[in-house]
Amino acid sequence: xxxSTRLLAAAAKFLEPGAPTGLTGLFTHPxxxxxxxxxxxxxxxxxxxxxxxxxxxxxxxxFTKHRLRIVESIEPxxxxxxxxxxxxRLAEHPGSFRSAEDSTANEDNQHIRSVQDGREFIxxxxxxxxDEREVEWNGETGSPELEGTRTxxxxxxxATMGRVTPRSDRKVVQWEPEPPLDADQIAEIENKIGAGLxxxxxxxxxxxxxxxxxxxxxxxxxxxxxxxxxxxxxYFERKT
Length: 240
Hints:
three-stranded mixed sheet, 3 strands, 8 helices
């Protein structure tokens, strides 16, 4: 059952990002489709580390691919045209979209490029508005600093400083976000997945992505150190 707040919000063509969903602490997600595709692709990418014989990998892959197909099958209006514009923007400004592993990338890079399970994603940093009038003074007066580098940690980044584009020379390239899904399309995804609101589905996907690391660390595909006694799990079997 969908919360009444979402049902009332669905009367409009598009859901308002940040609006209450009717569930405590859960607000309307601004980009649910691209977020889910990124989370599912990242999960599938991490699962490749596990052996193909792992039951956990097999079940999680099947579950994730099923939901990924549902999300990808529903495209917002103008999606194909947006995708072509995005490809042209990437081709025209390759230096503005660096991968996180690029040695010349730094904290000033506005767009980070990544590939998950064969799909390409662009993450854009959103700079928060800062007003020093709203920052409360913590009582610190500061202390003078010596000039020049003094430790090996401070000299560590000097090798790449010459290859990093200075901020004053960096061109700011605006990235156009993916068109949003309308309220009917979001409702269609929710009905096909059948796991509550799309924001709840995102929370589950985030948890599954973290769980892969835990299961990989635990090496769940390996044999038990102590074999179970015969009939230990018999009461869990399904009787037909």
